[in-house]
C-alpha cells in the first residue's frame, strides 16, 4: 500500500454553486434575499434613482474603448541617454535599436525628462521637458523640432 501525503489545505468553498460547491445547499452562503443574494450587480450600477451618476458626469465618448483612459508617453530619463554614442540623433528608432525602450513605444510615444547628467552631445528630435532640454544644451547638444 502506498503512503500518500496528508492534505493540509482545503479547497475554497464556492458560493452559489449548490451542494457540490462545498458550501451546503439552500442559500449557499449568500444570506437571504436581497440584491447581493441574487446574480451579480453590474460594474456601473450605482443604485436606482441617481440624479448625477458617475457615467453621466463623464464627457460623452462613443464606440469601442469608451471607458479606457488616454495612454501616456513612455518616460526616458536623461541618465539613460549615456548608453548612446556621442553625436547621435535621439529619435524613436535609435532608442529602440539601443534597447532603451521597446518596440511598443511607437504606439504611445516617448518623452525625455531631466534626471541625471549628460556628458555627450546629442541631437534630439522627440518631445523633451524644459529641464532635460537645459541639460542637453549645457552638454553641447541640440533640440531639433
Automatic annotation (TrEMBL):
Tell me the InterPro entries matching this sequence: Ribosomal_uL15, Ribosomal_uL15/eL18, Ribosomal_uL15/eL18_sf, Ribosomal_uL15_bac-type, Ribosomal_uL15_CS
Q: Where would I find the Large ribosomal subunit protein uL15/eL18 domain in this sequence?
A: 87-144
| Swiss-Prot/TrEMBL keywords | Ribonucleoprotein, Ribosomal protein, RNA-binding, rRNA-binding
Compositional bias annotation for Gly residues: 17-32
GO molecular function terms listed in the Swiss-Prot or TrEMBL record: rRNA binding; structural constituent of ribosome
Q: Name one GO biological process term.
A: translation
State the Pfam families in the record. Ribosomal_L27A
Q: What does this protein do?
A: Binds to the 23S rRNA.
Family assignment? Belongs to the universal ribosomal protein uL15 family.
User: How does this polypeptide assemble, per the annotation?
Assistant: Part of the 50S ribosomal subunit.
- Its name, as the record gives it, is Large ribosomal subunit protein uL15
Amino acid at each position: 500500500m502506498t503512503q500518500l501525503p496528508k492534505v493540509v489545505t482545503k479547497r475554497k468553498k464556492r458560493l452559489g454553486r449548490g451542494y457540490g460547491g462545498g458550501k451546503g445547499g439552500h442559500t449557499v452562503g449568500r444570506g437571504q434575499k436581497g440584491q447581493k443574494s441574487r446574480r451579480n450587480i453590474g460594474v456601473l450600477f450605482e443604485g436606482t434613482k441617481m440624479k448625477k451618476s458617475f457615467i453621466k458626469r463623464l464627457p460623452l465618448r462613443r464606440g469601442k474603448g469608451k471607458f479606457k483612459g488616454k495612454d501616456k508617453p513612455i518616460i526616458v530619463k536623461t541618465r539613460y541617454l549615456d548608453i548612446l554614442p556621442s553625436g547621435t540623433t535621439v529619435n524613436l528608432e535609435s532608442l529602440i535599436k539601443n534597447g532603451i525602450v521597446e518596440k511598443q513605444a511607437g504606439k504611445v510615444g516617448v518623452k525625455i525628462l531631466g534626471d541625471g547628467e549628460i556628458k555627450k552631445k546629442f541631437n534630439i528630435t522627440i518631445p523633451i521637458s524644459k529641464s532635460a532640454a537645459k541639460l542637453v544644451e549645457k552638454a553641447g547638444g541640440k533640440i531639433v523640432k
